[in-house]
Amino acid sequence: MTNVALEGLVAGDGPGATTSLPSVAPAQLSSPSVPPSPAAIASPSAKPSPSPAPKPRPFAMDLYRANDFVGEKTAIWCLAAAVQTSINIMSPGADVSWATQLRLFNLTRSLAPAPDGAAEPEGWAKALTKLGFGDYKVSVHPSIRSAITAAAKAVRATGRPAGLMVWRGAHSWVMSGFTATADPALFRQFTVTAVRIEDVWYPRYSNIWGRSRPPDALVPVGKLSEDFKPWRRPQARYPAKDGRFVIVIPTR
User: Which residue from 56, 59, 95, 202 could staple onto 212, CB 3.0 to 4.6 Å apart?
Assistant: First the structure.
């Protein structure tokens, strides 16, 4: 994926050679061709053996590279930092500057402001789409398993990162990869066993949620419920999100 500049948001013999044709005996010219026997005509052609169907086997992918991570510069810039980290993952270089994160914060907030002074997950999706990193959308699910399966399918299909709205929607994690029981590109039935995440709160500690995980942490799906809680924001009601699991995914 080509990076998009963020400046200005809100801003084959040789010549003359001859070939002698071989002489042909008259008997050869007048000899009629021998027709194939009826048995030969009736004999069916041999059919190739079918290739065996592929069997499911453990699958893993991870888009993250060293230095792609950038933490949030302020306590309310998590979504902007997640956008910045996502862009770094999709770009040949990495921009971890404060100035870029500020521009991304202003962009995401202008696209989808949140009551708490930050930005809604729609701002994440709209910003990446607007900046030329492919189409993204917000997707809402009834369970962690449903949400993680959808995110893994999207990451595998597009080769671009997804996002998880954790801490009841108050915080943003980038999902750069996963492990599964089979390749989602080859099998409809598979189970995601763990996800690769970049927690932009790192290296901070939360009195509520505990110590943040380092970049590219592999988190078993069984442990996701410690952080990936159903959406519930005290500042406002969200009929389409409340009590559900919210993700940001690439669509094409």
Answer: 202
